[in-house]
From TrEMBL:
EC number: 6.5.1.4
Family of the protein in this entry: Belongs to the RNA 3'-terminal cyclase family. Type 1 subfamily.
Source organism of this protein record: Vombatus ursinus (Common wombat)
GO molecular function per UniProt: nucleotide binding; RNA-3'-phosphate cyclase activity
Protein name: RNA 3'-terminal phosphate cyclase
Keyword hit for Ligase: yes
InterPro entries given in the database record: RNA3'-term_phos_cycl_insert, RNA3'_phos_cyclase_dom, RNA3'_phos_cyclase_dom_sf, RNA3'_term_phos_cyc, RNA3'_term_phos_cyc_type_1, RNA3'_term_phos_cycl-like_CS, RNA3'P_cycl/enolpyr_Trfase_a/b, RPTC_insert
Bilayer-crossing regions: none
Boundaries of every RNA 3'-terminal phosphate cyclase domain copy: 102-427
Length: 455
């Protein structure tokens, strides 16, 4: 009989029977690995038969504690090729990824294939976008996979529109020029998310030519990438230049950006826990194509009115812009607003226009998003937190960030970063808040200190 004391809650367990679908896949010392991480994860049950006897817990509390232990270790039914979080696969072993759990969308593909490419791990992703209304690969996902394949001369099988399973075998990452074209309004910023970590560890400088939507729904706008993500991500010790050659909007796409960056030896850890005070609020509204300039002015005015209801002591500088015809494909309108703090933290709110939605409503939506991100007291906004996870995992040393409620995208990024690397993440409620009603968390990561073998 095996027993273990949970370090998280102090409950001792006696294990009478542990029956797994494939017990040989797990270390004999399994009980010694059980810990309460107290992460805000979804509770996912393991399909096993388990008989247990709690020493210090009874009834519902016992079942709750046990489910926390199990959900921390097993987020999918055991398989022969599955890995414990943080475990390193044996040479040549293909890592199994369940693309339908947690966020269950394209983010799982982006994080897992980028880390596969960086670490040289053969990968199989199943149940791709299983929970979406249209499961399987869409054009933007396919173009991202093909770019990752090309930049490391890897092998990609099963990748076609609608496919729910792919296998990927990476080789060595190379610099140079790499192109990806969604041929739709699929986001160029999401293409950048999957490719940027890889080319940071290439042998030579890289140029990424990415085509699709620059201001797309359900993805960061290019303005967010340049105004918020870029200055914060560069705190890891790398820089990149981005030239917006053409803006593209839903449904036609047609946008293009060119990103240039040089490789690094190693990424530095970051500490984004001191929020400071808001010192500037600025932004831009835009219209393109046949849409009248008045829409841009109305979006800006509505956003300013909304912000001034809560922040009265700062000038809000939102500039309306008519995009030049030679630099915008199709019709579109939108807004981004950025708040900058005394410590260099950046927060944003953004929105895109749609048919039948008034300019005022678009402006107010962006303003309310910004104000919501400022209210929680964190040092990064809800859309930046998950984008930083992969860099925290790769960096050398301990990175920390303070943020509001942990999004499902962030939970997903953490799970797959831990599964594919030795990085260790902890998420805990911030304890230094004057206002206990604020839901603020500290995300901490001991990175793997990945080193570029070419430099």
């Amino acid at each position: 009989m095996l027993s273990d004391l949970c370090l998280g809650c102090g409950v001792a367990w006696a294990w009478d029977l542990l029956c797994l679908d494939s017990y040989s896949a797990w270390p004999p010392a399994l009980p010694g690995l059980l810990r309460c991480a107290h992460l805000p994860r979804s509770e996912l049950w393991l399909r096993t038969a388990l008989v247990f006897r709690p020493h210090q817990a009874r009834g519902g509390r016992a079942a709750w504690c046990l489910s926390r232990h199990l959900s921390r270790l097993f987020l999918a039914p055991p398989r022969v090729e599955a890995l414990l979080p943080g475990a390193t696969p044996m040479a040549g072993q293909r890592v199994e990824i369940d693309g339908g759990i947690m966020e269950g969308g394209g983010q799982i593909l982006r994080v897992s294939t980028a880390l596969s490419c960086l670490l040289g791990l053969p990968l199989r992703v199943q149940k791709i976008r299983a929970g979406r209304s249209t499961p399987g690969l869409r054009p933007q996902h396919l173009s991202g996979l093909e770019m990752i394949r090309d930049l490391c001369d890897g092998q990609l099988e099963g990748a076609e529109i609608g496919s729910t399973e792919i296998t990927f075998t990476p080789e060595k990452i190379k610099g140079g020029t790499h192109t990806a074209d969604t041929k739709t309004a699929g986001s160029v910023c999401l293409l950048l998310q999957v490719s940027m970590p890889c080319v940071l560890f290439a042998a030579s400088p890289s140029e990424l030519r990415l085509k699709g939507g620059t201001n797309a729904e359900m993805a960061p706008q290019i303005d967010y990438t340049l105004m918020v993500f870029k200055p914060i991500a560069e705190k890891f010790g790398f820089k990149f230049d981005c030239d917006v050659k053409m803006r593209g909007y839903y449904p036609k796409g047609g946008g293009e950006i060119i990103v240039r960056m040089s490789p690094v030896k190693q990424l530095s850890p970051i500490n984004l826990t001191d929020r400071g005070t808001v010192t500037k609020i600025y932004g831009r509204t835009f219209v393109a194509g046949v849409l009248p300039f008045k829409i841009a002015k109305d979006m800006a005015a509505a956003a300013v009115r909304c912000i001034r209801k809560e922040i009265r002591d700062l000038y809000v500088n939102i500039q309306p812009v008519q995009e030049p015809k030679e630099q915008a494909f199709g019709n579109g309108n939108g807004i981004i607003i950025v708040a900058e703090t005394s410590t260099g933290c950046l927060f944003a709110g953004s929105s895109l226009g749609k048919r039948g939605i008034s300019a005022d409503k678009v402006g107010i939506e962006a303003a309310e998003m910004l104000l919501g991100n400022l209210r929680h007291g964190g040092a990064v906004d809800e859309y930046l937190q998950d984008q930083l996870i992969i860099f925290m995992a790769l960096a050398s040393g301990v990175s920390r960030l303070k943020t509001g409620p942990i999004t499902l995208h962030t939970q997903t990024a953490i799970h797959f970063a831990e599964q594919l690397t030795k990085a260790k993440f902890t998420v805990k409620k911030s304890e230094d808040e004057d206002d206990s009603s604020k839901e603020t968390y500290i995300v901490e990561c001991q990175g793997i200190g990945m080193t570029n073998p070419h430099l």
